[in-house]
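Schema walk-through. Below, the input block comes first and the output block second. Nothing else is stored per chain. Lengths vary across the set, and this one has 120 residues.
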Amino acid sequence: MQISDAESQVMEVLWKRAPLGSEDVVDALSQTHAWAEPTIKTLLNRLLNKGAIEAVKDGRRYLYSPVLKREAWVARESESVLTRLFDGRVAPLVAHFSKHQKLSEVDIAELRKLIDEIDS
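--- output ---
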């Protein structure tokens, strides 16, 4: 299942606060995006047709909830990035970030901890 960048923004709202009516999704996204209501409703319908979300009737409206788990989506997306850009290898990814974006002390400590855990 392919989720576009715009659709992922809708999913983030639903992952955080579902179930939500379309008006709630519109309100949440209008604070950070200059998207019109019909655009957001189109994104909801696309996600519904893809099976990424579900809609349950609640009176005169529908409440939307994610079917696609965020963890599963993140795993697929990160694997795709690794495969496309770094031949499936993590070390070149980390090297890229260390050269082009300064890694913080916290980042370095977390990486060391992960390596130690892998070595154990």
